[in-house]
Amino acid sequence: MNANVLKSEQPSAATVKSATRVLEIFEYFDEVRRPVTIQDVAQALSYPHSSTAALLKSLVSLGYLEHDDRGKTFFPSIRISLLGNWVEAEALPIRNVQRLMRRLSADTGCTIILAASLGAYAQYVKVIQGTSPIRFHVKPSTKRMLAFSTIGRVLLSELPLPEARRLIHDALAAMPERRESMQEIEDELQRIRKRGLALYSDLVTPGATMLAMPIPMGPSGRSVAIGIAAPNEYFRNRKQPFTTLLKNAIAEHISQNGQGFKETVDDEDQLEIDDDTAP
Questions:
Q1: What's residue 220's pLDDT?
Q2: For the IclR-ED domain, which residue ranges apply (predicted)?
Q3: Which of 125, 154, 188, 259 has an alpha carbon 20 to 30 Å from 43's alpha carbon atom?
Q4: Spatial contact of 161 and 190, defined as CB atoms under 8 Å apart
Q5: H or E element that contains 165
Q6: Which residues fall within 8 angstroms of residue 273, CB to CB, at 6 or more apart?
Q7: pLDDT in tens, 2-23
Q8: Please, what are the domains in the chain?
């Protein structure tokens, strides 16, 4: 591929929007896991009906979707399932992580989030929506600043200190309205490293609590973390059971995949989490 061509041919705004929508469509399929109509996609993603129809038909012609004429529905083709197979050997064993997430979803009823670092942000790579009567809906690909989110601080705690400090400095500069100091956030990261987890209420979304832990990555070295999120009132009397569930699920995942794991604190006094709130 000619790099000069890439530099000289900047994509139009319409092209970028179309690319974003294509990826959001595939993430929507990953969430619903069933054939869908044009109206289903347009309504779920707030797209114009005509644009949705054009995109879906284009993906059919390219072989990425299959179309059922009778039901007027679309569904990903086998070509999609083959696209990312090579990544699995280079990164985390994704099927086992998805199994871990489904187990946590079934055991807790909470929203389960897998996130990875993306520059100064934590990006939600995969989301299983909560099933409890009161829950928050979170979209895949959502981004949160590492320094100012629960799962972000877990990811930040896994970085070398100089890199973490640089990202904290950049975050504080970008959001001067935040009241935390560099030292306060560093102290929080030290607590997270010691416990092997983070738990905050109201840190990003008022009325929401998240518990998060890192997942060892193996050869790729990219940090990922998994989080359990729910309304404060649903989480309030379930913090310790949810912590035990998450720790056990990740420990089992590690034993199955032969990855090294940093031991976390088990001492009951040091794992007292009922009073953790956003600073």
A1: 52
A2: 79-267
A3: 125
A4: no
A5: helix 161-174
A6: 199, 239, 240, 243
A7: 333 333 334 445 557 788 889 8
A8: 17-79 (1.10.10.10), 88-260 (3.30.450.40)
